[in-house]
Amino acid sequence: SQKIEQNSEALNIQEGKTATLTCNYTNYSPAYLQWYRQDPGRGPVFLLLIRENEKEKRKERLKVTFDTTLKQSLFHITASQPADSATYLCALVTGFQKLVFGTGTRLLVSP
Amino acid sequence: EPEVTQTPSHQVTQMGQEVILRCVPISNHLYFYWYRQILGQKVEFLVSFYNNEISEKSEIFDDQFSVERPDGSNFTLKIRSTKLEDSAMYFCASVRVVTEAFFGQGTRLTVV
After folding, report:
1. Alpha-carbon distance B52 to A88, whole Å?
2. Which of A46, A70, B65, B107 is such that its CA lies 20 to 30 A from the CA of B79?
3. What does the pLDDT look like over B21-62, one tens digit per residue?
4. What is the mean pLDDT of chain B?
């Protein structure tokens, strides 16, 4: 069966450290993968998109890697800040740009 | 900055009633979606709409649900005869081409 799993439900780190979130998928062959941020009671907000032929993508303090052999994406936030505390969602793009979301990882950055 | 607008932000309805959730997608976008998120669970795809017709729908999107784009700007999700288990956040999203999805702030539907 098809699955998208994000490594943990919650991740607690200290301000200034790098947060690393994992997304693993099975029985999908996505052309690309996206990461979103979701705050409580709000809609997902797009962060980064990475295509299957790209190994790495960066945007400011964010970095995403995509390994289609391992069927895994890693999402890094460097120099994390309390304002980065949120739920981060991995999403595969299939069909008519349909997004299939993982369960999300709740990140808490402590001062 | 363009945004997707959803109304109402919160809707309370009695079981068995019909509700219509409304969305105004970003004007030059081509693909439109409804997603649902039950409290504490993941965001789930319901339906996609392209070129004025449904392009894909999930198993959740049964005969109880319908979508319309009546006037070229609004995009609506109708739920007939609501059930308790329809209580969730409903998100509308739009996509221009092969790019990121823009989500609205959601409608919290509570069926009592």
Report:
1. 32
2. A46
3. 999 999 889 899 999 999 999 999 999 999 889 999 999 999
4. 94
DSSP states of B39-85 as a string?
TTS-EEEEEEEETTEEEEE-TT--TTEEEE-TTSS-EEEEESS--GG
- List the one residue out of A71, A69, A58, A56 whose CA is nearest residue A102: A71
Query: At B28, which amino acid appears?
Result: N
- β-partners of residue A73 are A23, A66
Average pLDDT over chain A, rounded to an integer: 93
Residue B86: phi, psi to the nearest 5? -80, -10
List chain B residues with CB under 8 Å of A2.
Answer: none
- For residue B94, the one-letter residue type is S
Task: Report CB contact under 8 Å: A96, B48.
Answer: yes
Nearest CA in chain B to A105: B42
